[in-house]
Amino acid sequence: MMIQALIFDVFGTCVDWRNSVARAVARQLPGVDATAFAEAWRAEYDPAMARIRDGGRGYVPLDDLHLENLHRTAQNFGVEAPDSLNTAWERLDPWPDVTDGLNAMRQTRIIAPCSNGSIALMTRLARYAQLPWDCILGAEIARDYKPKPAVYLASCAALRLPAHAVMMVAAHNGDLHAARAAGLKTAFVPRPAEHGPGQTTDLAPDAEWDIVADDFNDLAARLS
Question: Least crowded by CB within 10 Å, which of 11, 22, 28, 204?
């Protein structure tokens, strides 16, 4: 398997958005159920992108969608949220295995995010979470959102690599189905705590992905 680059989903796969965003909400909106607010804010994520994927709206960076979604969520909770709360998405804690695992993988392969986050968001998040990316790829260079094939293929093209030489790493089966359909190799790493103790989705692979690993350290070992 001649994998020359690894590209990664970030929200949920590399970082714990739920607890990290809830922490920021608790600090800025005391009295609100911070976890419920974080989950409701995140629930606006896919519908906001769907309008762009479906052609109903031109490309808008995720930072701006997050801000729109923040105010919509705050209104639903009956509170006013400061715009500064939107930077919570730049300060998400990595899962414990991520930094060491990425550094190990980077010894032999190019590593980069293939996230729906903007270049600015991914850069600031990388600095906060110590994610040692070689470059920032993903939605903004494609000006579209996953799981559209253009996002995966734009990342491969930016690296001047054929799709079959690039592996998409994600904790979400849907992301990997889309990447495989675009010709990329695939690796599944479960994150059973992404959505909290009641998580029922993506607890296990639902297809024969090229690699199924326990965590990023295990993935690094399997690739070595």
Answer: 204
